[in-house]
Design brief:
This protein is of the alpha+beta class and about 120 residues long. The chain has one domain (about 5-90). The protein contains two helices and four strands, in the order βββαβα. The longest helix has 23 residues, at about 90-115. The two termini are about 40 Å apart. It comes from Maribacter dokdonensis.
């Protein structure tokens, strides 16, 4: 089973007013999804974000954003550069591949030498 993890790619402190408590201490974080499986480690193109007030510790959803918050979000979204989508094999994949190649080479050797 693949394990999913959201890794932080950009974090910014905003000085806009919180819609809940009206303090000027917001934190905007952008995440990129990584999946870790037995054979491959994949970096996906899925991005997510989270806006949290550091004073009242509430998550602020886009429904309650003001125009100023939305403007700052759009700016920081452009500056958040995600890692390229990629897929890397793990050590288990290479070990299994090497074992399969050795098994096929051994069977081929036995077939050619006439032992089978």
């Amino acid at each position: 089973m693949a394990k999913e993890k959201f890794e932080v790619i950009k974090e910014a402190q905003l000085t806009n007013n919180c819609p809940e408590c009206f303090n000027q201490d917001l934190s905007l974080t952008f995440y990129q999804k990584h999946t870790y499986g037995s054979f491959f480690h994949k970096i996906t193109g899925d991005l997510s974000n989270k806006l949290v007030c550091n004073t009242c510790h509430t998550t602020i959803y886009p429904v309650s954003w003001t125009d100023d918050i939305e403007r700052m979000f759009n700016y920081y979204q452009k500056t958040a550069v995600p890692a390229k989508k990629s897929s890397q094999p793990t050590l288990l994949f290479y070990g299994l591949l090497l074992a399969m190649i050795a098994l096929v080479a051994g069977a081929l050797y036995l077939f050619i030498s006439g032992a089978i």
